[in-house]
Amino acid sequence: MALPQHELTLGEAADLLSPALPGHRVEILQGRLTVTPPPDGSHPLSLTKLCRALERAGIAGSGAEWVQGVGLWLPTLPEDFAIPDLSIVDEDFRDAHVAKNYYAPNVFRMVVEVTSSNWSDDLGPKVECYAQAGIPAYLIADRKDGEVLCYQDPVDGKYPGPQRFKRGQSVPVPESVGVTAEFSVDALLDGND
Asked: In which region does residue 105 sit, left (phi positive, over 0), alpha (psi from -120 to 50) or beta (all else)?
């Protein structure tokens, strides 16, 4: 007698993969399950430099917080979600819980990705997904091409072309964050001061 088999949904597969692959980032982007291995040491240092700049700019008390590893529910497809490297969110973002560890996009002021082995996702599907979610600013430290891209103010689910910043330049924090600061392109790309 044959037993019926249950086919896993993408969400169920993601739930099974996450604990089975510690340190890996499991996301569903545009109906595609993606798994990214742990990054190199420069990757988190880049984020640390950015967080320190935000702290110096007075993010505490501004109504915003920076958080790492928080899930962002994406309206692109029913099971889509991303886990940005860094998110600047409203300080009461936990009130916008959707499911699991995902939060509604309306509490995200900016998301930041530092490219690693999944650079094509950061520069392609995530640009589209974050724009469709209405994220006011998306900052990418593109270590592959040695530049920082800043997408802002999506219109009809699409970002206009990005501002591009090269080595030796500074990147201003987008207005949507709620603090005024600049940070070095080199620090974002390399994790150095």
From this structure: alpha
